[in-house]
Amino acid sequence: MIGLALILFAAAMAVTVSKALRFPLIPLYLLAGMLLQPVVGGVVEWLETIVVLAGGSYTAPGEEMAGFDYQTAILELGLAFVVFAVGLELSPRRAGNRKKAVLWVGLVQFAVLAAAGFAVGIYWRETVPVAIFLGLAVAASSTLVVIRHLKMNQKMFTSGGRLVTGVLVLQDLLVIIGLVVLMRVESGVAEVLAGLVGVFAVGLLSWFLARYVMPIVVLRGKLGEELLLLTVLTVLSVFMAAAFWLGLPLVVGAFMAGLSLSSFPVNGVVRGLINSMNDFFVALFFLVLGSLIVVPPVEMWGGGVVLLVLLLVVTPPLVKVVAELKGLSSRASLESGLLLAQTSEFSLIVALYAMLHGKIEAELFSLIALVTIISMSWTPFLAREGVVRTLIHLSPLSRWWARRAGEGRLHEEADGVVLFAGMGEAGDRLARTLMKKGREVLVIEEDGVLLHQLKSQGIPFLRGDPNNSNTLCRGGLTKAVAVVSTSVREEENRALLLAMGKERKPLLVPVFDREAGQRFEVYRHIHPVVITDRTTELFLQWFDDVASESLVEGK
Protein backbone atom coordinates (compact mmCIF):
# COMPACT_ATOMS: atom_id res chain seq x y z
CA MET A 1 0.00 0.00 0.00
CA ILE A 2 2.90 2.36 0.73
CA GLY A 3 4.15 1.88 -2.85
CA LEU A 4 0.71 2.66 -4.31
CA ALA A 5 0.44 5.73 -2.08
CA LEU A 6 3.82 6.95 -3.34
CA ILE A 7 2.69 6.52 -6.95
CA LEU A 8 -0.46 8.56 -6.32
CA PHE A 9 1.57 11.18 -4.43
CA ALA A 10 4.00 11.43 -7.36
CA ALA A 11 1.06 11.90 -9.75
CA ALA A 12 -0.37 14.67 -7.55
CA MET A 13 3.01 16.43 -7.41
CA ALA A 14 3.35 16.20 -11.19
CA VAL A 15 -0.05 17.85 -11.63
CA THR A 16 0.86 20.59 -9.14
CA VAL A 17 4.15 21.37 -10.89
CA SER A 18 2.46 21.31 -14.29
CA LYS A 19 -0.18 23.86 -13.27
CA ALA A 20 2.27 26.09 -11.42
CA LEU A 21 4.79 26.24 -14.26
CA ARG A 22 2.32 25.77 -17.17
CA PHE A 23 4.47 22.78 -18.12
CA PRO A 24 3.27 19.72 -20.11
CA LEU A 25 2.02 17.03 -17.74
CA ILE A 26 2.97 13.87 -19.62
CA PRO A 27 6.77 14.36 -19.41
CA LEU A 28 6.42 14.92 -15.66
CA TYR A 29 4.49 11.65 -15.29
CA LEU A 30 7.17 9.80 -17.25
CA LEU A 31 9.98 11.34 -15.21
CA ALA A 32 8.17 10.46 -11.98
CA GLY A 33 7.79 6.88 -13.22
CA MET A 34 11.52 6.70 -13.93
CA LEU A 35 12.30 7.87 -10.38
CA LEU A 36 9.83 5.39 -8.89
CA GLN A 37 10.94 2.29 -10.78
CA PRO A 38 11.46 0.17 -7.63
CA VAL A 39 8.13 1.36 -6.21
CA VAL A 40 6.19 0.48 -9.37
CA GLY A 41 7.78 -2.96 -9.41
CA GLY A 42 6.73 -3.42 -5.78
CA VAL A 43 3.14 -2.48 -6.59
CA VAL A 44 3.08 -5.05 -9.40
CA GLU A 45 4.30 -7.74 -6.98
CA TRP A 46 1.67 -6.59 -4.46
CA LEU A 47 -1.08 -7.05 -7.06
CA GLU A 48 0.18 -10.54 -7.83
CA THR A 49 0.10 -11.41 -4.11
CA ILE A 50 -3.48 -10.17 -3.77
CA VAL A 51 -4.57 -12.41 -6.64
CA VAL A 52 -2.83 -15.45 -5.12
CA LEU A 53 -4.37 -14.80 -1.68
CA ALA A 54 -7.78 -14.53 -3.30
CA GLY A 55 -7.37 -18.04 -4.66
CA GLY A 56 -6.06 -17.12 -8.11
CA SER A 57 -2.83 -18.06 -9.77
CA TYR A 58 -0.05 -16.24 -11.54
CA THR A 59 1.61 -17.69 -14.61
CA ALA A 60 4.17 -15.73 -16.55
CA PRO A 61 3.49 -15.88 -20.31
CA GLY A 62 7.09 -16.66 -21.10
CA GLU A 63 10.61 -16.25 -19.84
CA GLU A 64 11.13 -13.02 -21.70
CA MET A 65 7.98 -11.55 -20.09
CA ALA A 66 8.39 -13.09 -16.63
CA GLY A 67 7.13 -10.77 -13.88
CA PHE A 68 5.55 -8.48 -16.49
CA ASP A 69 2.01 -9.80 -16.70
CA TYR A 70 0.34 -7.46 -14.23
CA GLN A 71 2.38 -4.52 -15.38
CA THR A 72 1.07 -5.19 -18.86
CA ALA A 73 -2.50 -5.34 -17.54
CA ILE A 74 -2.09 -1.95 -15.85
CA LEU A 75 -0.62 -0.51 -19.04
CA GLU A 76 -3.45 -1.84 -21.21
CA LEU A 77 -6.12 -0.42 -18.91
CA GLY A 78 -4.41 2.96 -18.75
CA LEU A 79 -3.70 2.85 -22.47
CA ALA A 80 -7.40 2.49 -23.24
CA PHE A 81 -8.21 5.69 -21.36
CA VAL A 82 -5.24 7.59 -22.82
CA VAL A 83 -6.24 6.82 -26.40
CA PHE A 84 -9.93 7.38 -25.59
CA ALA A 85 -9.02 10.85 -24.25
CA VAL A 86 -7.04 11.58 -27.43
CA GLY A 87 -9.97 10.64 -29.65
CA LEU A 88 -12.39 12.64 -27.50
CA GLU A 89 -10.37 15.83 -28.15
CA LEU A 90 -10.18 15.42 -31.92
CA SER A 91 -13.43 16.22 -33.64
CA PRO A 92 -12.71 16.19 -37.40
CA ARG A 93 -15.19 19.05 -37.84
CA ARG A 94 -12.86 21.43 -36.00
CA ALA A 95 -10.72 21.67 -39.11
CA GLY A 96 -13.47 23.85 -40.59
CA ASN A 97 -12.55 25.23 -44.00
CA ARG A 98 -8.88 24.25 -43.61
CA LYS A 99 -9.28 20.68 -44.85
CA LYS A 100 -6.93 21.05 -47.83
CA ALA A 101 -4.27 22.67 -45.67
CA VAL A 102 -4.73 19.93 -43.07
CA LEU A 103 -4.27 17.23 -45.70
CA TRP A 104 -1.12 18.77 -47.17
CA VAL A 105 0.53 19.72 -43.88
CA GLY A 106 -0.36 16.45 -42.18
CA LEU A 107 0.83 14.21 -45.00
CA VAL A 108 4.01 16.15 -45.77
CA GLN A 109 5.11 16.40 -42.12
CA PHE A 110 4.25 12.75 -41.45
CA ALA A 111 6.11 11.52 -44.52
CA VAL A 112 9.23 13.64 -43.94
CA LEU A 113 9.61 12.73 -40.26
CA ALA A 114 8.81 9.07 -40.87
CA ALA A 115 11.51 8.99 -43.57
CA ALA A 116 13.95 10.73 -41.22
CA GLY A 117 13.25 8.26 -38.43
CA PHE A 118 13.67 5.35 -40.83
CA ALA A 119 17.00 6.80 -42.04
CA VAL A 120 18.24 7.10 -38.45
CA GLY A 121 17.30 3.46 -37.85
CA ILE A 122 19.21 2.34 -40.93
CA TYR A 123 22.18 4.47 -39.80
CA TRP A 124 22.15 2.52 -36.53
CA ARG A 125 22.31 -0.63 -38.67
CA GLU A 126 18.95 -1.79 -37.41
CA THR A 127 16.82 -4.15 -39.48
CA VAL A 128 14.31 -2.65 -41.88
CA PRO A 129 11.26 -3.57 -39.71
CA VAL A 130 12.86 -1.92 -36.67
CA ALA A 131 13.70 1.19 -38.71
CA ILE A 132 10.08 1.35 -39.90
CA PHE A 133 8.83 1.17 -36.31
CA LEU A 134 11.19 4.00 -35.39
CA GLY A 135 9.99 6.11 -38.32
CA LEU A 136 6.34 5.55 -37.37
CA ALA A 137 7.07 6.42 -33.75
CA VAL A 138 8.52 9.86 -34.51
CA ALA A 139 6.12 10.84 -37.31
CA ALA A 140 3.17 12.12 -35.25
CA SER A 141 2.79 15.02 -32.81
CA SER A 142 1.30 14.98 -29.31
CA THR A 143 -2.45 15.51 -29.19
CA LEU A 144 -2.78 15.88 -25.41
CA VAL A 145 0.07 18.40 -25.10
CA VAL A 146 -0.96 20.51 -28.11
CA ILE A 147 -4.69 20.57 -27.31
CA ARG A 148 -3.94 21.58 -23.72
CA HIS A 149 -1.74 24.44 -24.96
CA LEU A 150 -4.41 25.63 -27.41
CA LYS A 151 -7.08 25.61 -24.71
CA MET A 152 -4.92 27.42 -22.16
CA ASN A 153 -4.14 30.15 -24.70
CA GLN A 154 -7.67 30.29 -26.15
CA LYS A 155 -6.53 29.37 -29.65
CA MET A 156 -8.69 26.34 -30.37
CA PHE A 157 -10.81 28.16 -32.95
CA THR A 158 -8.15 30.27 -34.63
CA SER A 159 -7.01 29.28 -38.11
CA GLY A 160 -3.80 27.83 -36.64
CA GLY A 161 -5.74 25.94 -33.99
CA ARG A 162 -8.08 24.44 -36.58
CA LEU A 163 -5.13 23.46 -38.76
CA VAL A 164 -3.26 21.80 -35.90
CA THR A 165 -6.35 19.94 -34.67
CA GLY A 166 -7.03 18.57 -38.14
CA VAL A 167 -3.39 17.54 -38.59
CA LEU A 168 -3.47 15.69 -35.25
CA VAL A 169 -6.58 13.74 -36.30
CA LEU A 170 -4.98 12.79 -39.60
CA GLN A 171 -1.64 11.80 -38.10
CA ASP A 172 -3.18 9.72 -35.31
CA LEU A 173 -5.23 7.84 -37.89
CA LEU A 174 -2.10 7.26 -39.97
CA VAL A 175 -0.24 5.94 -36.92
CA ILE A 176 -3.09 3.55 -36.12
CA ILE A 177 -3.18 2.28 -39.70
CA GLY A 178 0.60 1.94 -39.73
CA LEU A 179 0.56 0.03 -36.45
CA VAL A 180 -2.05 -2.40 -37.79
CA VAL A 181 -0.01 -2.96 -40.96
CA LEU A 182 3.25 -3.53 -39.08
CA MET A 183 1.67 -5.96 -36.62
CA ARG A 184 0.25 -8.07 -39.47
CA VAL A 185 2.79 -7.72 -42.26
CA GLU A 186 4.63 -10.93 -41.34
CA SER A 187 1.38 -12.88 -41.78
CA GLY A 188 0.97 -11.84 -45.40
CA VAL A 189 -0.91 -9.41 -47.60
CA ALA A 190 -4.29 -11.01 -46.88
CA GLU A 191 -3.92 -10.38 -43.16
CA VAL A 192 -2.88 -6.79 -43.75
CA LEU A 193 -5.91 -6.17 -45.96
CA ALA A 194 -8.17 -7.82 -43.39
CA GLY A 195 -6.75 -5.52 -40.72
CA LEU A 196 -7.32 -2.43 -42.84
CA VAL A 197 -10.91 -3.51 -43.55
CA GLY A 198 -11.39 -3.93 -39.81
CA VAL A 199 -10.09 -0.42 -39.12
CA PHE A 200 -12.42 0.97 -41.79
CA ALA A 201 -15.40 -0.90 -40.29
CA VAL A 202 -14.72 0.38 -36.77
CA GLY A 203 -14.13 3.88 -38.14
CA LEU A 204 -17.43 3.77 -40.05
CA LEU A 205 -19.25 2.75 -36.87
CA SER A 206 -17.57 5.63 -35.03
CA TRP A 207 -18.65 8.14 -37.71
CA PHE A 208 -22.24 6.84 -37.66
CA LEU A 209 -22.51 7.12 -33.88
CA ALA A 210 -20.92 10.58 -33.84
CA ARG A 211 -23.22 11.86 -36.59
CA TYR A 212 -26.58 10.30 -35.79
CA VAL A 213 -26.68 8.53 -32.42
CA MET A 214 -24.58 10.11 -29.68
CA PRO A 215 -25.95 13.69 -30.01
CA ILE A 216 -29.44 12.29 -29.42
CA VAL A 217 -28.42 9.96 -26.59
CA VAL A 218 -26.19 12.42 -24.73
CA LEU A 219 -27.99 15.71 -25.36
CA ARG A 220 -31.63 14.67 -25.66
CA GLY A 221 -31.77 11.37 -23.81
CA LYS A 222 -32.38 13.07 -20.44
CA LEU A 223 -30.24 10.45 -18.76
CA GLY A 224 -28.98 10.96 -15.26
CA GLU A 225 -25.25 11.37 -14.67
CA GLU A 226 -24.83 7.79 -13.47
CA LEU A 227 -26.64 6.28 -16.44
CA LEU A 228 -24.87 8.60 -18.86
CA LEU A 229 -21.48 7.61 -17.41
CA LEU A 230 -22.37 3.94 -17.82
CA THR A 231 -23.40 4.65 -21.41
CA VAL A 232 -20.03 6.26 -22.17
CA LEU A 233 -18.11 3.36 -20.61
CA THR A 234 -20.30 0.94 -22.55
CA VAL A 235 -19.39 2.69 -25.80
CA LEU A 236 -15.70 2.39 -24.91
CA SER A 237 -16.13 -1.30 -24.02
CA VAL A 238 -18.05 -2.09 -27.21
CA PHE A 239 -15.43 -0.50 -29.43
CA MET A 240 -12.59 -2.28 -27.64
CA ALA A 241 -14.47 -5.56 -27.88
CA ALA A 242 -14.97 -4.95 -31.61
CA ALA A 243 -11.25 -4.31 -32.02
CA PHE A 244 -10.44 -7.50 -30.10
CA TRP A 245 -12.92 -9.55 -32.15
CA LEU A 246 -11.39 -8.22 -35.38
CA GLY A 247 -7.88 -8.97 -34.17
CA LEU A 248 -6.90 -5.29 -34.05
CA PRO A 249 -4.82 -3.53 -31.37
CA LEU A 250 -7.06 -2.31 -28.56
CA VAL A 251 -5.92 1.26 -29.21
CA VAL A 252 -7.93 1.19 -32.43
CA GLY A 253 -11.15 0.55 -30.53
CA ALA A 254 -10.35 3.09 -27.80
CA PHE A 255 -9.46 5.82 -30.31
CA MET A 256 -12.57 5.26 -32.42
CA ALA A 257 -14.71 5.26 -29.26
CA GLY A 258 -13.32 8.70 -28.43
CA LEU A 259 -14.00 9.97 -31.95
CA SER A 260 -17.61 8.75 -31.72
CA LEU A 261 -18.10 11.15 -28.78
CA SER A 262 -15.91 14.00 -30.04
CA SER A 263 -18.51 16.18 -31.74
CA PHE A 264 -19.46 19.48 -30.07
CA PRO A 265 -21.11 19.76 -27.57
CA VAL A 266 -21.22 16.01 -26.85
CA ASN A 267 -17.51 15.95 -26.03
CA GLY A 268 -17.93 18.67 -23.40
CA VAL A 269 -20.65 16.72 -21.60
CA VAL A 270 -18.68 13.47 -21.74
CA ARG A 271 -15.44 15.12 -20.65
CA GLY A 272 -17.17 16.53 -17.59
CA LEU A 273 -18.37 13.06 -16.63
CA ILE A 274 -15.15 11.11 -17.00
CA ASN A 275 -12.46 13.71 -16.27
CA SER A 276 -11.56 12.41 -12.82
CA MET A 277 -11.56 8.75 -13.87
CA ASN A 278 -9.65 9.51 -17.04
CA ASP A 279 -7.04 11.62 -15.22
CA PHE A 280 -6.41 8.76 -12.78
CA PHE A 281 -5.83 6.13 -15.46
CA VAL A 282 -3.79 8.47 -17.65
CA ALA A 283 -1.53 9.23 -14.70
CA LEU A 284 -1.24 5.52 -13.83
CA PHE A 285 -0.41 4.62 -17.43
CA PHE A 286 2.38 7.15 -17.90
CA LEU A 287 3.84 6.50 -14.45
CA VAL A 288 4.03 2.76 -15.10
CA LEU A 289 5.32 3.44 -18.61
CA GLY A 290 8.02 5.66 -17.18
CA SER A 291 9.12 2.82 -14.90
CA LEU A 292 10.04 0.79 -18.01
CA ILE A 293 12.53 3.39 -19.28
CA VAL A 294 16.18 2.42 -18.97
CA VAL A 295 19.29 4.37 -19.86
CA PRO A 296 20.09 3.67 -23.54
CA PRO A 297 23.67 2.70 -24.42
CA VAL A 298 26.00 5.58 -25.24
CA GLU A 299 26.21 4.65 -28.91
CA MET A 300 22.47 5.38 -29.28
CA TRP A 301 22.62 8.87 -27.80
CA GLY A 302 23.82 10.42 -31.04
CA GLY A 303 20.77 9.08 -32.86
CA GLY A 304 18.52 10.55 -30.18
CA VAL A 305 20.14 13.96 -30.63
CA VAL A 306 19.66 13.66 -34.39
CA LEU A 307 15.95 12.94 -33.90
CA LEU A 308 15.56 15.93 -31.59
CA VAL A 309 17.36 18.21 -34.03
CA LEU A 310 15.15 16.99 -36.86
CA LEU A 311 12.02 17.71 -34.86
CA LEU A 312 13.23 21.17 -33.90
CA VAL A 313 14.86 22.26 -37.15
CA VAL A 314 12.76 20.53 -39.81
CA THR A 315 9.17 20.61 -38.53
CA PRO A 316 8.56 24.37 -37.96
CA PRO A 317 9.87 25.63 -41.34
CA LEU A 318 8.35 22.67 -43.18
CA VAL A 319 4.89 23.25 -41.72
CA LYS A 320 5.24 27.01 -42.17
CA VAL A 321 6.02 26.79 -45.88
CA VAL A 322 3.28 24.27 -46.69
CA ALA A 323 0.65 26.08 -44.61
CA GLU A 324 1.47 29.48 -46.14
CA LEU A 325 1.17 28.03 -49.62
CA LYS A 326 -2.31 26.85 -48.61
CA GLY A 327 -3.40 30.31 -47.49
CA LEU A 328 -2.62 30.51 -43.77
CA SER A 329 -0.94 33.58 -42.37
CA SER A 330 2.75 33.56 -41.51
CA ARG A 331 1.92 33.73 -37.81
CA ALA A 332 -0.60 30.89 -37.85
CA SER A 333 1.71 28.76 -40.01
CA LEU A 334 4.71 29.30 -37.75
CA GLU A 335 2.73 28.74 -34.55
CA SER A 336 1.41 25.48 -36.03
CA GLY A 337 4.90 24.33 -36.92
CA LEU A 338 6.23 25.10 -33.44
CA LEU A 339 3.33 23.27 -31.79
CA LEU A 340 3.81 20.20 -33.98
CA ALA A 341 7.57 20.02 -33.32
CA GLN A 342 7.46 17.11 -30.89
CA THR A 343 6.72 13.40 -30.78
CA SER A 344 3.48 12.00 -29.48
CA GLU A 345 1.87 9.81 -26.87
CA PHE A 346 1.25 7.59 -29.89
CA SER A 347 5.04 7.41 -30.25
CA LEU A 348 5.12 5.78 -26.83
CA ILE A 349 2.22 3.51 -27.73
CA VAL A 350 3.86 2.33 -30.96
CA ALA A 351 7.15 1.74 -29.17
CA LEU A 352 5.38 -0.07 -26.32
CA TYR A 353 3.51 -2.40 -28.69
CA ALA A 354 6.72 -3.08 -30.59
CA MET A 355 8.61 -3.90 -27.39
CA LEU A 356 5.89 -6.12 -25.93
CA HIS A 357 5.74 -8.12 -29.16
CA GLY A 358 9.50 -8.47 -29.39
CA LYS A 359 9.91 -6.17 -32.41
CA ILE A 360 12.32 -3.75 -30.73
CA GLU A 361 14.60 -3.86 -27.70
CA ALA A 362 13.98 -2.08 -24.39
CA GLU A 363 16.87 0.30 -25.13
CA LEU A 364 15.25 1.60 -28.32
CA PHE A 365 11.90 1.93 -26.54
CA SER A 366 13.66 3.97 -23.85
CA LEU A 367 15.34 6.20 -26.43
CA ILE A 368 11.99 6.94 -28.10
CA ALA A 369 10.50 7.70 -24.67
CA LEU A 370 13.33 10.08 -23.78
CA VAL A 371 13.00 11.88 -27.12
CA THR A 372 9.28 12.21 -26.39
CA ILE A 373 9.90 13.60 -22.90
CA ILE A 374 12.36 16.23 -24.15
CA SER A 375 10.36 17.28 -27.21
CA MET A 376 7.08 17.54 -25.29
CA SER A 377 8.82 19.62 -22.64
CA TRP A 378 9.97 22.32 -25.03
CA THR A 379 6.54 22.86 -26.63
CA PRO A 380 5.25 25.63 -24.29
CA PHE A 381 8.55 27.51 -24.60
CA LEU A 382 8.70 27.27 -28.40
CA ALA A 383 5.15 28.53 -28.83
CA ARG A 384 5.60 31.69 -26.74
CA GLU A 385 4.62 34.99 -28.27
CA GLY A 386 8.16 36.39 -28.14
CA VAL A 387 9.59 33.37 -29.96
CA VAL A 388 6.90 33.55 -32.64
CA ARG A 389 7.42 37.27 -33.32
CA THR A 390 11.19 36.91 -33.44
CA LEU A 391 11.11 33.99 -35.87
CA ILE A 392 8.58 35.73 -38.14
CA HIS A 393 10.84 38.77 -38.45
CA LEU A 394 13.83 36.52 -39.15
CA SER A 395 11.99 34.38 -41.70
CA PRO A 396 13.11 35.09 -45.30
CA LEU A 397 9.82 33.73 -46.61
CA SER A 398 7.75 36.08 -44.42
CA ARG A 399 9.81 39.05 -45.62
CA TRP A 400 9.37 37.90 -49.21
CA TRP A 401 5.57 37.80 -48.84
CA ALA A 402 5.62 41.31 -47.31
CA ARG A 403 7.80 42.76 -50.10
CA ARG A 404 5.55 41.17 -52.69
CA ALA A 405 2.48 42.84 -51.17
CA GLY A 406 4.12 46.26 -50.84
CA GLU A 407 3.46 48.99 -48.30
CA GLY A 408 -0.16 49.48 -49.26
CA ARG A 409 -1.80 52.82 -49.74
CA LEU A 410 -3.50 55.38 -47.57
CA HIS A 411 -7.04 56.53 -48.12
CA GLU A 412 -7.58 60.15 -48.84
CA GLU A 413 -8.38 61.60 -45.46
CA ALA A 414 -12.14 61.30 -45.47
CA ASP A 415 -14.68 60.95 -42.71
CA GLY A 416 -16.23 57.58 -42.18
CA VAL A 417 -13.33 55.18 -42.71
CA VAL A 418 -13.51 51.94 -40.69
CA LEU A 419 -10.08 50.85 -39.48
CA PHE A 420 -9.43 47.11 -39.13
CA ALA A 421 -6.67 46.29 -36.65
CA GLY A 422 -5.43 43.20 -38.44
CA MET A 423 -7.15 40.89 -40.86
CA GLY A 424 -7.99 38.17 -38.35
CA GLU A 425 -10.16 35.13 -38.97
CA ALA A 426 -12.95 36.86 -40.85
CA GLY A 427 -11.51 40.31 -41.43
CA ASP A 428 -11.55 40.06 -45.21
CA ARG A 429 -15.17 38.93 -45.25
CA LEU A 430 -16.25 41.77 -42.96
CA ALA A 431 -14.26 44.32 -44.95
CA ARG A 432 -15.76 43.19 -48.28
CA THR A 433 -19.26 43.32 -46.82
CA LEU A 434 -18.75 46.88 -45.58
CA MET A 435 -17.29 47.91 -48.94
CA LYS A 436 -20.40 46.59 -50.66
CA LYS A 437 -22.46 48.74 -48.31
CA GLY A 438 -20.49 51.77 -49.48
CA ARG A 439 -18.22 52.13 -46.45
CA GLU A 440 -14.55 53.11 -46.68
CA VAL A 441 -12.32 50.53 -45.00
CA LEU A 442 -8.60 50.24 -44.33
CA VAL A 443 -6.92 47.13 -42.92
CA ILE A 444 -3.72 47.64 -40.94
CA GLU A 445 -1.72 44.42 -41.05
CA GLU A 446 1.93 43.36 -40.86
CA ASP A 447 1.66 39.69 -41.86
CA GLY A 448 3.03 39.32 -45.39
CA VAL A 449 0.75 36.45 -46.43
CA LEU A 450 -2.36 38.30 -45.28
CA LEU A 451 -1.20 41.49 -47.00
CA HIS A 452 -0.80 39.58 -50.23
CA GLN A 453 -4.35 38.19 -49.85
CA LEU A 454 -5.74 41.66 -49.18
CA LYS A 455 -4.00 42.99 -52.28
CA SER A 456 -5.38 40.20 -54.47
CA GLN A 457 -8.91 40.86 -53.14
CA GLY A 458 -8.71 44.59 -53.72
CA ILE A 459 -9.13 45.51 -50.05
CA PRO A 460 -7.23 48.69 -49.07
CA PHE A 461 -4.47 48.02 -46.57
CA LEU A 462 -1.55 49.65 -44.80
CA ARG A 463 1.48 47.61 -43.86
CA GLY A 464 2.39 48.03 -40.20
CA ASP A 465 1.76 46.99 -36.63
CA PRO A 466 -1.95 47.58 -35.86
CA ASN A 467 -1.12 48.02 -32.17
CA ASN A 468 1.30 50.87 -32.85
CA SER A 469 0.00 54.42 -32.29
CA ASN A 470 2.01 55.91 -35.18
CA THR A 471 0.63 53.31 -37.60
CA LEU A 472 -2.92 54.00 -36.43
CA CYS A 473 -2.41 57.73 -36.96
CA ARG A 474 -1.05 57.10 -40.47
CA GLY A 475 -4.15 55.05 -41.15
CA GLY A 476 -6.43 57.98 -40.26
CA LEU A 477 -7.48 57.15 -36.72
CA THR A 478 -8.50 60.73 -35.96
CA LYS A 479 -11.17 60.70 -38.70
CA ALA A 480 -12.16 57.04 -38.45
CA VAL A 481 -15.76 56.29 -37.59
CA ALA A 482 -14.89 53.04 -35.83
CA VAL A 483 -12.08 50.61 -35.15
CA VAL A 484 -12.51 46.86 -35.47
CA SER A 485 -10.15 44.45 -33.74
CA THR A 486 -10.00 41.01 -35.36
CA SER A 487 -7.99 39.31 -32.60
CA VAL A 488 -9.49 37.42 -29.66
CA ARG A 489 -6.23 37.67 -27.72
CA GLU A 490 -6.93 39.90 -24.73
CA GLU A 491 -3.36 41.19 -24.46
CA GLU A 492 -3.40 42.31 -28.11
CA ASN A 493 -6.70 44.12 -27.66
CA ARG A 494 -5.37 45.91 -24.59
CA ALA A 495 -2.30 46.92 -26.59
CA LEU A 496 -4.62 48.29 -29.28
CA LEU A 497 -6.57 50.24 -26.66
CA LEU A 498 -3.33 51.71 -25.34
CA ALA A 499 -2.17 52.61 -28.85
CA MET A 500 -5.43 54.49 -29.52
CA GLY A 501 -4.57 56.80 -26.63
CA LYS A 502 -7.15 59.50 -26.06
CA GLU A 503 -9.08 58.73 -29.24
CA ARG A 504 -12.36 57.32 -27.95
CA LYS A 505 -13.57 55.84 -31.21
CA PRO A 506 -16.12 53.00 -31.06
CA LEU A 507 -13.99 49.87 -30.78
CA LEU A 508 -15.32 46.41 -31.54
CA VAL A 509 -13.38 43.76 -29.60
CA PRO A 510 -14.04 40.04 -30.13
CA VAL A 511 -13.57 38.07 -26.91
CA PHE A 512 -13.40 34.36 -26.25
CA ASP A 513 -15.95 34.24 -23.41
CA ARG A 514 -18.28 36.46 -21.40
CA GLU A 515 -15.81 36.79 -18.54
CA ALA A 516 -13.28 38.43 -20.86
CA GLY A 517 -16.03 40.65 -22.25
CA GLN A 518 -16.88 41.94 -18.78
CA ARG A 519 -13.29 43.10 -18.31
CA PHE A 520 -13.67 45.40 -21.34
CA GLU A 521 -17.12 46.74 -20.47
CA VAL A 522 -15.62 49.24 -18.05
CA TYR A 523 -14.61 51.27 -21.13
CA ARG A 524 -17.73 52.95 -22.50
CA HIS A 525 -16.50 53.13 -26.09
CA ILE A 526 -15.53 49.44 -26.27
CA HIS A 527 -18.07 46.92 -27.47
CA PRO A 528 -16.95 43.37 -26.59
CA VAL A 529 -18.49 40.62 -28.71
CA VAL A 530 -18.35 37.01 -27.57
CA ILE A 531 -17.29 35.11 -30.68
CA THR A 532 -19.46 32.10 -29.82
CA ASP A 533 -22.54 34.33 -29.65
CA ARG A 534 -22.17 36.62 -32.68
CA THR A 535 -21.93 36.25 -36.42
CA THR A 536 -21.09 38.56 -39.30
CA GLU A 537 -24.72 39.60 -39.55
CA LEU A 538 -24.77 40.67 -35.91
CA PHE A 539 -21.55 42.59 -36.44
CA LEU A 540 -23.19 44.54 -39.23
CA GLN A 541 -26.14 45.23 -36.95
CA TRP A 542 -23.69 46.55 -34.34
CA PHE A 543 -22.04 48.76 -36.93
CA ASP A 544 -25.35 50.23 -38.07
CA ASP A 545 -26.50 50.86 -34.49
CA VAL A 546 -23.28 52.14 -32.94
CA ALA A 547 -20.74 53.26 -35.52
CA SER A 548 -23.21 55.03 -37.79
CA GLU A 549 -24.72 56.86 -34.84
CA SER A 550 -21.25 58.03 -33.81
CA LEU A 551 -20.63 59.31 -37.33
CA VAL A 552 -23.82 61.34 -37.30
CA GLU A 553 -23.08 62.82 -33.88
CA GLY A 554 -19.47 63.52 -34.82
CA LYS A 555 -18.08 61.55 -31.91
Chain-wise SSE layout:
Blueprint: H1 2-21, H2 25-35, H3 37-53, H4 69-88, H5 99-123, H6 128-137, H7 143-152, H8 159-184, H9 189-220, H10 225-245, H11 250-260, H12 266-290, H13 298-313, H14 315-325, H15 330-339, H16 345-356, H17 362-377, H18 379-382, H19 385-394, H20 396-405, E1 417-421, H21 427-436, E2 441-445, H22 448-457, E3 461-463, H23 469-474, E4 480-485, H24 490-500, E5 507-511, H25 514-520, E6 526-530, H26 536-553
Parallel strand pairs: 1-2, 1-4, 2-3, 4-5, 5-6
Helix pairs in contact: 1-2, 1-3, 2-12, 2-17, 4-11, 4-12, 5-6, 5-8, 5-13, 5-14, 6-8, 6-16, 7-8, 8-9, 8-15, 9-10, 9-11, 10-11, 13-17, 14-15, 15-19, 16-17, 20-22
Task: Describe what this molecule looks like in 3D.
By secondary structure, the protein is mainly alpha-helical. The protein has 2 domains: 77-393, Na+/H+ antiporter like fold (Up-down Bundle); 408-553, Rossmann fold. The chain has 26 helices and 6 strands.
Q: Within the CATH hierarchy, at the fold level, what is the topology of the largest domain?
A: Na+/H+ antiporter like fold
Strand percentage, roughly? Answer: 5-15%
Helix content: 55-70%
Summed up, the helix count is: 26
The order of strands across the largest sheet is 3-2-1-4-5-6
Radius of gyration based on Cα positions = 26 Å
* CATH architecture designation of the largest domain: Up-down Bundle
Amino-to-carboxy terminus distance: 72 Å
**Class by helix and strand content?**
mainly alpha
Which stretches are low in confidence, meaning pLDDT under 50 for 5 or more residues running? 50-69, 532-539, 546-555
Oligomer: single chain
Largest sheet: 6 strands, parallel
Instruction: Give the total of beta strands.
Output: 6
- The CATH class assignment of the largest domain is Mainly Alpha
Structural domain tally: 2
Can you give the mean pLDDT? 78
Morphology = globular
